[in-house]
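Memo to structure team: turn this sequence into structure tokens by end of day. - J.P.
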Amino acid sequence: MKVYLLGAFICCSMLAYSQNCPYKIIGQVRDMHTNQVIADARVSIQTKTMQTDSLGFFHFEDLCPGNLTLHCVPHFGCEPIDLEIQVPYNDLITFKVETHQVELDELLIEAYHFPRESQEKMTLKTNDISQIKGNTLGEQLIRFPGVTSLNTGSSIVKPVINGMHSNRLVVVNNGIRQEGQQWGSEHAPEIDPNLAGNLTVIQGASGLQYGTDAIGGVILVSPDELRYQKNTAGWIKLNGNSNGRGGGISGLIAGSFTKSKKWAYRVHGTGRINGTQKAPDYWIKNTASNEYSYSAALGYKGEKFEMDVFYTKYSTNLGIFTGSHIGNLSDLNAAFAASTPKDTGSFTYQLENPKQLVQHDLSKIHLAYNWNKKIKTSLVYGYQFNLRQEYDLHKAYNDSIAALNLPAFELNLWTNSLELKTEIKHSNRFKSVFGVSGLEQSNAYSGRFFIPNFKKLQFGGYYIGTYENEKWLFDFGARYDYSRLEVFVYENNILTKPIRQFQNPSASAGVSRLLGHHWIVRLNLGTAWRPASINELYSNGLHHGAASIEIGDAQLKKEIVYNSQLGVQYKSHIAKVDLSVFYNYFDGYINLQPSLPPMLTIIGAFPVFRYVQSNVQITGLNGRVEIPIGKYVSYQFQGNFLFGTDLRSNQYLYGMPSNRITQRVRVSTARSGTKLNCFVELELLDVFKQKRYVPNSDYVSPPKGYDLLSAQAGISKKMNSGESLQVVLACSNLTNLSYRDYMNRFRYFTDELGRNWTIKVLVPFSIIKKTPTINVGN
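Reply from structure team:
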């Protein structure tokens, strides 16, 4: 009997052993109400258990045929759910589960993250519209310590970093160095900041990767990354303003393609219009404006190879304040002395002469190859075209020509750029970047002469290294650039082709040190340079937008800066402190300075400015302190102090921004985990009178200082997609103060803007594609 039982047992065992179990199943876990995928849900079948990945997927292999039970626990605190299936099963299994929040006892863990860069570097997330002051790039950046603005009238704003602007700053637009007519005081960056996912400012001479001209710093305007392997999402921004009775709309949609998640796209567009703007006591005639921009991007991201293409177009029409274009010297001097312009006009959306049309096209092709986990090579090609048309107040004396309504002056600028770089991760602590870059640029003008036609070639190579451990970070680098400028200019009615060549090395070294849990100290030393630009060398005539005669000097040499910057940062629950002090020595600083008296021309009387070169020093202190007051209130103090000296004449340096202090009190209910938040913020900007100037060296003495009160309040609600619906109401110049700013060229003629109410709305959206499902659950 025992023999028979043993034989039966062996046969059954062999039968079980030989059973074929080749089947597998694939499934996904989603929320029943929002259809959002649920990561880290626990799914089990028989003795097998796994967690869903970041996209909510799970899979099991080596399953035997028959009726089996899938068991799913979405996350802690949720009821488990079971599903009976018949194996084999060839479709995608989708669990629709119900999730809910679980209230736990509060456990607060505070950690303070310090940026590990040795240079002063600050980033602003532009989708947080409660932190954004205005609609232009310059208006958004002034929230950073050390950043102010240079204005021409009320609609042209360009950033100033530690007293430096225009050719001393490099603006990088989505990885391409922006090349427009940035040399002018009224040539603001032709960029729509609504596209930017974040704005980053790097101060000082440490922007080696971005070539010459990065003397004062680098501004990085970066869109959000393309949404590879993600659902379609986007946003719509609406804004309106009372001063100018204007408004705008901006929208973005991005996602990946259904059939291949390795491909992604993004489309964006903006439109804005503004009417005549108003000082507290009068209309500022002919200050209407309108603009539009759009962009598109397409990208591919594989395991080794990456590629993306990008195109954007920006266009704006700007009215130039009529009171800045004056017919004779007597009226010009009277305008300098007057507290109110002679002609104040009335409200309109129409643009009259003088005016500007500015358009900028930028195209980019980016290719990258990951050789392995440690080495990556990328190639970036950029093409840009910049068009600027300027219409004078006075039309041509020939009626037939005047009837054509042609611009009095037109500039066309074409730029091709190419950069090849390789990033090497030697170890977890040591990284290197090698790169070479080239730029070819040509310019053609028509109409009234201001700057000549030219061709420019520029080449450079660089190396940047970074080493870090738990406490220390060291970065260092060097670069060498060569620049060749060929100019086509008439001298005594004879075409000449002078060639100017410039070359010089640049270098930077920095160190930062963590001290305990709350402090970091950083030091950066560097040298940078830039060649004299075309306007500094050869401009000669009316700079239309700035309403001035500008005269260059063909003998100007290159400009070299030696920079040092020391910073300290402290973070804790008591306060956040960020202080930095810097010293810049310039060998050959090129400055546009008043050259009295004004000049009478055939088209009017204008102040005269000349480019001069000298050795100067610029020192300054920037700081920001934020102190929490209780649970919901915080106080912020920000100060920018700047001092410039011409060392040859031992006099004050012309054109330095005034010292200023900004104080903010913010009440906010924002807490992690809460969906509905609101805030109220009150800001007081105290701008001192610029007393560091040479008497009788300017057409009008610096205006008195002023205190500007602003306020804003907003509410945000977190949506199921994780993004927040935001509504913000703000008011600048709350007291409707009449004042003039030293850094606005039109302070010669008119006050700044009066009170301005603005409303801003950000509406995010997400499009979730449905997948075949099996109804599971309650």
